[in-house]
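Sample 3 of the quickstart, ligand S-adenosylmethionine:
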Amino acid sequence: MFHDSGHDQGVRSPFNANLNRRIAETPSIIALLQAAPDEQQLPVLLLAAVHSLVLAEPDLELAQWYPTVTADAFDSDPFPAFERLCSQRGQQIREIVALRFTQTNEVGRCALLLPALGMLDAEVGALSLIDVGTSAGLNLHVDRYEYRYSPGGTVGRASRVVLICGTRGAVPVPDRLPAIAGRIGIDQHPIDLSDPDEARWLMACVWPDQADRFQRIEAAIEIAREHPPEIRRTNAIAGLRPAVSSAGEHGHPVIMNSWVLNYLSDAQRVDYLGELDAIGSRRDLSWVFAESPALCPGIPFAREFDNDSEHLTALTLTRWRNGVRTVEHLGVSHPHGYWLHWAN
Ligand SMILES: C[S@@+](CC[C@H](N)C(=O)[O-])C[C@H]1O[C@@H](n2cnc3c(N)ncnc32)[C@H](O)[C@@H]1O
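Result:
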């Protein structure tokens, strides 16, 4: 389950891009991936499997090249040590790729969700969050992080997770955190952070040379373990109604989606929207999403996009009030929340 192409690794992770190139030339390593289901036989899965080994065993020779293991990582070519580890631990790597698929939970997206939640907090008061496609539930802790918008200022308490977001336009950076009265996550394959192997796997799926992402996910996992939210293992469509019903007991229900709707089929997206409309016809409801217009046909984005990059992320706020749906395009952003450009 991943959406980062090889091209992006070249730009954003030279470490993985180099290993990718070398793996492609090494049949004995490619063979390890044959243990994975057909659609998962991608080098990124193998790279995450090896990353998980070095995180679990920092004394391995290869670990000395990983900035996620040591602050003094070697900057020479890691491939000879990578190849040795693949040969020594082939069976273990086969077992990992057979069992796992790449998983992400990008806490940086909270910097995108926060202004929209601030608008809702000002409008309706306490919010009860339902994060659909929540992964490990890290974005349910949106009010436990510190935000630095530039320009825009600082919001939130001093936190181990500091999110820095460059802004353009009149981003309504709230002057206080929204009141969160309830939190429910829904995911068909949630990550259970109480299981050290699952937590490590989530971290292993972060590219090794993206130290900022790695550090903040590590800190966010600590916070989530201190405040475990309710996470329901269910499908986005089937889980929606019961979750809104539970959440609505605590505050105004707000559905959140970030980089999830692209995993639904066209028909599932129609069903999902139908469910939201059916619920919204009977009770006030809000829906905030940060999704890729290019990958989510059928979803109302409230404007057309000239830029067809799959990475362009649109932030949209949909409200159902007294049975009437309105859709507001809020802005466009970096997929991981590093910048947010507000609409007029
Ligand atoms: C790319 S991750 C994004 C996770 C999180 N929203 C974030 O922004 O970091 C997509 C998540 O959606 C979940 N997912 C995909 N299809 C789903 C479905 N039909 N029902 C529930 N969860 C789904 C996956 O299991 C995965 O955890």
